[in-house]
User: Fold this.
Amino acid sequence: MIFSGKSDVGKRRTTNQDSYSILSLPGGYTLLTVCDGMGGVSGGNVASQTACAVFCTHVKERFDPAAGGFSALLKEAAAAANTAVYEKAQADPALKGMGTTLVSALISQERTALVLNVGDSRMYTFDGKELRQITRDHSYVQYLVDRGQITVKEAETASIRNIIIRSVGNEPETNPDLFRLELTPGSYVLLCSDGLTNCVKKDALAAALKGDGEEELEACTEELIRLANEGGGVDNITVILGKIS
Assistant:
């Protein structure tokens, strides 16, 4: 398995409030993580950097491939990240109200994935035919779609699509979703902030996922960033792309 990651400020922002990590763990596991911060220039930066660092450190320090219990470990790591961001916000008036999304995938050499998400950063898989969204957005527009008040197509262009209803750090506790899946040999995994998905249509995302080697995968990651900027670059853009062997 090979992985590539990149983050870009986009065309409209002056700072990058996204953070990401590609972390190798014992037993041939890899932890992929993307956070997209909110709460002003300084608050968004602090929230995403803090959550990403605390989450990954918590998993790394406690990870035991022989012991298992990975679902509980990821939830504990999300809780630790939430507490760290929330306490920083409470201690500094300049950071009050900050928070962040978090999406993370723990992938094994046996091609299993355990995915955790809070907010609207996403994970997709692509098997060469279908681009499948694994995570479900914790957003107000998704809530309206679920209630049948707007269509999926309307949600894609709604002015309120950036309003999220679950995050890391805004409240004393957070409530992540967990997903388990088997990955197909030769398929791709994509983790990203909404700076990508708000500017690149699903068909264009799927068409850009190609290449086998490390250099090709890095070029593909660069191409996704380019497409997002070409589509407006209205937000920071973060992409982690993996090819499953």
The two ends are 5 Å apart (CA to CA).
